[in-house]
Every structure is written in structure tokens, then in C-alpha cells.
Fold this protein.
Amino acid sequence: MAEKRYAMVIDLNRCIGCHACSVACKAEFDVPVGVWRSWVTYGERGTYPDASLSFLPRLCNHCENAPCIPVCPTGATYQRDDGVVVIKEERCIGCGYCVEACPYEMRYLHPETKVASKCDFCVHRVDQGLEPACVQTCLGTARIFGDINDPNSEISNVLKKEKVHQIRPDFGTDPRVFYVDPDPALLDVFKRTAPQEEVV
Amino acid sequence: MKPTIVYEVFHPLSWGADIAADFFLVGLAVGAFLLSAGIKLYYGPKKVLPEEYRKICRIGAYVALVGLALGSVFLISHLGRPERFFMLLYRFQPSSVLSWGAWIQLGFTICAFWYALLWWRDRPGEAKHRLVVGLIGSVFAIGLGTYHGVLQTVLKASALWNAGPTTVASMLGFVLTGIAAVTLVIALRRRGEEALKAILAIRWVFGFAILAQLFTVLLWIASLYAGPRDAHVAAELLLTRFPMLLWGGAIGLGLILPLALGFYAIAHERKDPRIGVVIPAVAAALVLVGGFILRYVIVVAGQLS
Amino acid sequence: MRLSRRDFLRLGMATAGMAAVPVNPAFLLAADSPAPVTGVSSHTGRKLQAVPSACWQCVCRSSIVGFVENGRLVKVDGNPNSQRTRGRICAKGQAAPNFLYDPDRILYPMRRVGPRGSGKWKRISWDEALDEIAGRLKKLRDEGHPERFMFHYGRMKASSSKIIKSYFLPAYGTKTIGNHTAICEGGKWTAQELTWGKHYDVNDVERSKYIVVMGSNPLEAHTSHEVIAQRIVEARANGAGMVTFDVRLSNTAAVSDKWYPVRPGTDGAVALAMAHVVMANELYDKKFINKWTNVTVQELKDHLARYTPEWAEGISGVPASEIRAVARAYATKKPSTIISYRGVVAHYNGVENERIIQMLEAIAGNIDVPGGRTRAVGPKWKNSYKKPKGKVKKLKILDGKEIAYPTHHVSHQVFKMIKDGSNGRPEVYMWYCYQPVYVNGEVQENIDVLKDEKLIPFTMAVDVAMSESSALADIILPDATYLERWDWEDMVSYDKTPEYYIRQPLVKPLGEARDFKDVCVDLAQRIGPDVAKWLPFKSAKEFVKDACEHTKAVKAAGGFRYMVKHGAYVDHKAKHPYRSHAKKLKPKDLQGTIVDKKTGVVWKGKPGQDYTTTKKAYKKYVGQMIDGVAYKGFKPDKLNKNGLFEIKSEFLAKKGFPAMPSWMPIPEHEKMKEDELILTTFKVNVQIHSRSSNSKWLTEIYHTNPAWINPETAARLGIKNKDRIKVKSHIGEITTKAYVTPRVHPKVIAISMHCGRWEYGRYGSGKKVFPTVKDDEPWWTDFGVHPNWIIPNAPDPIGGQQRWMDTVVSVTKE
């Protein structure tokens, strides 16, 4: 059997935008305020009364062709054999180059450890046979995590059945986070346009 | 119809004024070194350098060393874990531009130090020595200048950086600020005739560099604007969110005004030789301010686009 | 058991034995094979100690597992042994560590040293605090006025309620016990008591084919939020339709097939028109109407004839064709149900609106059927201790004035009653897990009354945070958070199966914080032996242990030890049937009963007693005679109602209200001017109403509450997005920020009720209570504006529910 290849599918038909994933992630890693490994973007559109609101849970895409890896000057960021992109914290010098290299805004310099940080698919849990924290608590069971190299896994079944989308595949990154039925306009993200500014 | 984003998170920018200062100072060092070594190379090992050029070469060597040192301070202090700085060298990653850059910068630092030492000792018979070190140093300087442009250009994540002219504009900017820094130092350190002669010796290069930089920057913005969607959005962001810094600071204050001052100086220096020193000095100072602003705008806007 | 696609996949995966990540479908397991729970430290990679317990962030009170590392709580997850929550908890539940380790948390008893409310405090010992309190309480009791000790709680449930409300307070002798139901959903319960008796409805959504949401936002906030939210998602995944009537496009409306904006307070008109369509098109459940209600089909048709969809369109603004379509879908895509909440009941006509919806559910045949509006099933804990006997006295300040049936009290009128003084005033006012200043309307009056030592001589707060209310206390007792205390818990099931679960400390209480239940035991002893004798248990832990050993089902499962280990026990053997009202009574049920001639109620009255007029006769209800057969019927509560589903209410007719559910216009809305708006408040998914703003991870997401205003309205008023605006009601004015959005009705200005705090620590208000205690600095500087300053405390005339959504305001650009 081939090596494991972890990935996640997020079914937007089941997402209720509840932020349980975001806060579970904060708790799992005791993430300080002001930085995020995972969050849910809200977009509203339309005119009254045909208005709508859509959600897009965000996390590291664990790209097959991750732009953050080659740029790291010390090899602190690397891809595990199972595809998960992780950071060896003790090797990171905190230059921030990987933060700049990620087109998805997923990385940040941790305010306390001063090294790069981001979602790591909760490998500490996954390696012990658990699901990532966001998957574990997702109220809508919208998140499916698993091994796409295992043809019998739930995620493989979903990938076979559903049409899935990636965020900005045109970057050539080949994300390993797939979305079912997302709001296409929310997927079409540009980099941040309003730093530290209240949107609403 | 595009949705209005009503909830989104924004990470703090990881590169700010400190990185802009690092780029600016190291760039300036590269420029000053290239000026110095370039003159030396032009005259070759045999010919005797005229006194004014000797001054330029010497000051260029010092400016390069000081700029590099200051820049390195900004760079290392920017690191989240500055004590791990040496990992940059012993954990060489061939895929990382930054990793190459660290080695290039080390090479350049050695050359710049050696080169400055040679000029400081000023021993007769070391002309050839200076030439060789200047030549090797120039290779590193060009590498380092290019590296500082490429560092940003290679990142697809930023449409603003991810454009060819970024590297060219950066490199030109480095040369320009190097010349400006040397000019300023000469004006500040030398008196009257001596300074005037030295400044006159490089003012055409200086003026040409300003023009070239102005042209490249405009070309860079235009090419972004006319570029693919992401680049276009980046250009719009640059123009709408940083109009004052870009037009007023980097271009107006840093390029057009110095150019105008230069013409003024040419027209009026015969009446009063002091004009030939003071005006270029002011122009050089403005070029340096503008150069830093441009660096800052590119660093910040690039992270937003 | 019905399996969803996902369950099937998971089972398939598990049986194939090739699971990449073992998923524990705990809710598929039998109750006696509890699922193991594990957590891993992200920092050390070591397994974490797992302690099952129960959440308390909101009333949903899910069974949870806390993960502890070196005595510190690092994470909370859902308990996989909970059938209710299926091992999943919401954002608020996930923020538990914030609540526990709030840097501004009060950890020591404190006494004010300046004037009341001056913000000057002195740390005192527990002995000093309790001696003073016991002294004051003893004095009142000895003087024969225990009722002058008023105890007012916000959230107090299960064993907390039992120990404090059923043992401590009656043993002491006061019944001046306030609650908060009237500012929540009291009107809903009153309407249910008037129709089907004992309150609490559970929308059996997971089995529904069509879900109508009216004035409710279950995907963001609900009494069973993470329970119902998961089941709605499953129903939707299985193809159920869902439409939402709301003044605002909430997350619930967002994931519905259609959002119908309604004019505030007119959901009743829409529901009446839906009932009209159901009757006019012969889509009703004839059998149910004839057998179980007290009206005939003809009576209903006659009554509803005038409530046409066209009429409702004129009132509510929802197009008649849409009302018809929804009514048809609702009546034909069976089973179906209506989820209704505060948007429906927090109005002048709130009780009537809910009564209309109850009628609609009844005529559509949705009452207590799979996928319909079912009766709640909760666990029945038993303790071995005798209930206190003896006289209890009460100040008549709990029910406001001239409310027809204040069956859940009228808590928002308490301060007005105290100010008024004609029914007496408490000398000692103590509040517990309650924010009286912040959560009621007319904030300024609340402050004025609570601050006035002439009106209330002694005030006491049991709180975890320096809240706006605690700031006005004479003594603050530091309460243990829910993560540091014992309880048995009993929230309702959504699967008709009682779920027994407990709360146990995940960590030792920080500082000198103490569980107030334990403090009650202590206080009882200090007041005197005749109080203490009714609290024979030494602690809440002992009380919980006693319940585990004396509750049959739990005892059989393994008692206290089992509960401590697994946290929850689902009693599958006690699964309740649907349509429990149709259960025929057995002869043994009928022993010692009489049949009331007038009502047909079978009850344990004395021969000759009249059911309707005998005080609290409903407590002796056994069943209902229908056509000569005794059925279980609809058990009444609070009122001596019969066991039928009452559509026509004599109780209301007696008080001058229409007997048949009817349209009741809202007086203020009838006479409001063209350019005035109606202020609506709402909750969001990451804040509890008043107790979570100290949680940094939640408040980081939601810390300010700009006023939602429709683009058309905004344009008319010259308001642009982010403009500063003034919102003015007849009692006051606030200045806030505009959020111009197509997601709100043009006649509405909507402001959430979580923000604008002026206390509650650095994350809630920016104000540090203990500046030397370090934690993350909040990066946000906008803390929003509280709408309650300008909302009057106005009761619904039938039930006394606070009319949150009725306030007429004018809005101008600042």
C-alpha cells in the first residue's frame, strides 16, 4: 500500500459558520489573541430581500507543492511523508520569509515563541489516532479528514463522489484542503486587503 | 457580484520598517561598493587615480561597510530568534533564495571589510590588491543586490513583488542610493573645492541613475497595472492605499525633486560654487529619504497584495 | 436506528479495519460500552488526563471531557458518551479555559470600602464574609421576616437548583426567589402551559422533512444549541426543506432554503395565515383535532376564515403566495415542525404568537410525533434527603403588576417593584450567576435601584467576574466556575431517551473560589441548627454521589463510580414513546383518583373537590377522560388546566383575552411614525448573553456590535456604513456605529446584546480589574454599545415576558 497522504474535505453544505473549529484550534494550541491557525471567513452578498451569507473555513492547505517549504533558509518547514506540512520550531529563526511566501495567509510569527507557526493538521493528535481538533468538534460534521491514498477511507469516498474545489489552484500549489459546494467568490481570495481594520 | 467580507482575520505584517531598513541599507552598501570598485576597475591597475576619484573610492568603501553593518543589525534584530542567526549559514538550503543570500551577504561582508581596510591603510603598491578585492566584491555586490530583489520577486504569494521589474528596480535603486550616500558623505566631510570636484566627477552618473530609476519604477507600476488580474489588483492597491508615500515620497521627493535640483545646480553653480556642493547634497539626502520610502512601500504593499 | 450517509461511511471504514483515523461513533454504541476519550498535549505530545464533566456556558449544558495537564485545564471537548451532543461542542464550550483562567477573575471574597459602586474593594476572609452574611440572614429570620432575604438567580439548574432552591432557601424560610425566565423565553412557556400543559418542546428535527424556523436562530443560539444544530444539519443533508422567518438573516436563515424577512412581531399573523391555508385546503389532522383538542374542525375553519394570506401579507410584509407555498409544504412534507423562540415571544403579543404556533402544529398533526414538535424528555434524578418542611414566606415583588398568568415570574419588573415599595422590599438582596444590571432593560434604573442603600440595605453577589452588577455589591463571594464544581445534570434529550450526566471539577478551584452550593451548607450551619438540619449533606459532591446511588437507572449502570469515570449515562431502556398523551391509563394508575365532571380530568382530589377551583390541583393530575376512556393526556403545569390540547382557552377568556388564538396588534407599532424603526436584539454564535465576554478567544471574534440597518433605510436617513449613529427610544439614547446590510428588514435596527460592557475585565470592556495579572493584551479597542440602555422593561400582558423586540426608535446620523 502506498504511503499515507492526509487531506481534508470541508462540505459547505454542512457548515453553519459556528466558529467551534476556530476556538477548538485556539484551545488545542493555546494560540494567543491576534493570530490564528484556523478561522471562518464570512461573506455577505445580494440585495434585500435576496441577501445571502456564506462561510469559508480556513486552515493551512498542506499544499502538495507548498511554496513555504523551498523558501525556508534553515529547513525548519518541511513536508512529512504523509503530506502534512510542519514546522520544526527549534530550527526556525523567525525570519518570516515563509509567512510572505504563503499565498493563503496561513502563517504568522508566534507572538511568544517568535517563530513561524500555522495549522499542522494536529499531527500530535493524528499520530495518536485522533482527528484534528477542528474536525473533532465540528457541529455540522462538515470536515472529513483522512488518508486519500487509502481508497476505502471516508475522504476518498467523498472525493470520488463530490465535485471539490481548492482555494486559488492557479498558484500551482495543489492544496490538500478541498471544499464541497463553496461560495466560489469566497474561494477566490486575494491577499489581505484591510490589515487590522474592522470590516464591519 | 463580489461578496462583502463581513468576518475575516488579519495577521500582523511580518515584515515592516525594520526589513525595509535592512533592504535599504544593504542596498545602499551594494551601490556604494559598486561605485567605488567600478571607478577602480575603470582606471585599471596601471593608471593612477585622480585625487577626486580616490576620495570617491575611499568613501564608497567606507559607506559600503557602514551600510552593510547597519543593515545586518536591522536584519538580525528583525529575526524572531536572532540567536539562531548562524543557522542561516550552517543549515544551507539550496532551494531557498534567503539561504543563498545569507552566504552571499557573508561573502560580501568579508570583501567589503577587506576592501575598506585596504583603502584605510592606503599603502602604496596595493592598487592591484584593491582592484582584485573590488572585483571579487563586485561579484558579491551584484549577487547581493540581485538577491534582495529576487528574494521578493520569486514569491508568487505577492503579485506586487512577483514581477520582473521588481528586481531591476531594486538593483537600480541600490546603485542610486549608494551614489547618493557617497555624494552626501563627501559633501558633509570635505570642504569647498575638494568636495565640488568629487561631486562633479559623479554627478552625471548620479543624474542618470535617478532618471533610470524613475523610468523603471514607472514601468514597474505600469506593467503591474496592465498585468494579470492579481498584479492589476496589486497595482490598484499600491495606487489607492499608498498614493502619498508612492507619488509624494518615493517618486516626487525621492526622484523628481532631486532631478530638478540637479538642473538648478547646473544652471547656477557658476555664480556660486557652493551651490554645486549644497544642492547635490540636498538632492542626495532626498534620494536617500525617497529610496527608503520606496523600499518601505514595496515591502508593506507587497504583503497586502 | 437511522443512519446517515456519514455514519454509513464511518461504519464501513471501521469494519474494513483500514481507518486512517479511528472515528468513534459513540452514539451508535450501546450505553454500557462507553467510549474511551483521549487528548494529547500539543506541546509535549503526552496523553492528557481526561475528566468527564458538563458545560455551563449556556443552558444547553453539554456533557464534556476536560483535558488536564499538570493540574491545568488545557482543553475541553464533547463527551463521546453523550447521545445529546455526540461528542461535539460549540465555540463557547471550547473557550472553557478562558473562562477559568480569566486574568480578571475574582478569586477572593471582597468587601466594598468606599460608597456602594465606587469601585474600592478590600479582600476579606471567607469567615468574615460568611459571618456577616449569616448574621444578617439570622437576624431577619429571627425577626420573622425571612422573606426579606431575596435570592435572585440567572442560571441555576439541576442539582444547583435543588440544593439552593429546594433545600437551602426553604430551610431558611424565604420564597422571595427571583429567576430570569421572563427576559428569556417565559412567554413561550406560558403559551405552552395554556395549550399542552407542562412546558418544554423539543423539535424532533432530525426526523423532520420540512422545518419552519420562526424568530429563532438554533444554529447560533438555542437552549439546546449544539444538540439541535447537529440534527438540523443531518436533516438538511437528508433532504429536509427549511425556511426561516426572521427580521434578520441569521446564520440559520443563511443555510435555509429561503429567508423570509418579517415585520417584527408579526410571525403570529403569518402562522395564522398558514393555519388558514391548512384548514381551507383540508390539510389538517382531523383525528387529532377531534380527539385531542377542545375545538372542532368547523370552529377552527370559522375562526381562521378571516386570517387569509392576503391579510397576513398586509400585516407582515411576507407575500401571500409565499405564505401559501410554505403552508402547503409544511402541511404536506411530513413530518414537519416549527422552531419558534424569542423572535416570536419577546413581544406584546408573544404568548399569543406562540399559542398560534402551537395551534398550527396541532392542526397539522405535528404534536409529539416523530419529526414534529415533541415533549421534552429529561432524566429524573432522585436524592435521598427529605425536603425541608416549615413555613416559607415571600415578598410579592416577583410577578410585576397586572399580568394575567405570570407562570414564570416577571423578573425584569423586580427592581421596579422594589422601587415602588408597596409590596415590601428585601433587606438583603443576593444574586447568583446573574447580571441584573446588564441583562434587563432600562439599565440606568437597574443601576439606580441597586446602588440605593435606602431601597436595598445590603447587596451580595456570587460571581466569577467583576460584572456591572457585582460592582454594586457590598460583598462579592467568588464562585467556583462550572469547571471546578460538582453537579448532576439533566438537560433534555433530542432522542426521547433520558441522558444522565454529571459535572465534576476538572481542576481545583483557583484562589479561594468556592462552589456556592458548598457555601450554602456552610451558611446553613452558621445560621443555626434548624436550618442546617435540612442540609444533611456536607458538600455538593456528597449530594451528587447520593443522587447517583439513589437514582435507579444510574445505580444500575454503576452509580457514582460509573458517572465519575464516564460522565454520562444514556438510559436506553427508558426511551419514551411518541404520542405519550395517547397512552391509556392502567387500573393501577387510576387507584385513588376521581374524575372531575366539568373537565373530565382524572386526578387525586378528595371526593367532592372541584378540580378547576382547588388550589394547585394540577399537581394531582393523573389523566384525562375522552369518550369514556382514561388517557394520560397532556399533563398540566402551573394552571388547573384539563388534559386536552387547548386551542380555545377559557383561562384567557376569563382575563379578557380572546379564547381562540388570534392576532394581537402591538400598540406601539400601530402608531409608530413612517421614519421610525423597531429595535431588535439578537445573540451571536460565539457569545453567551452576559457571561462570556471575559473569554478572550470568543471576544476576539466578536467584541463590537454595530447596528444592522437596511441599505434602503440607511439611504433615506443619510447613513453610510460605519457612520456613527444615534438610536433614540422614549427612555434614552445610545450612540453606536452603523452596519449597512441587506440582511435586515427595512423597518428594523438590529443590535446584538453581548457588547458595550463597562465592566467584566480587560477582554469585555478594556478595563483591567487586576492589572498585575498578565495575559494576552486585547488587540481590539472597540467594545460596542449595549442596547438595553434604551429598551424599557415592558411585560407581555399575558405572561409577563420582557418585550425585547418591540421598542420603537428613531435613528439619526451623529
The mean pLDDT of chain B is 91.
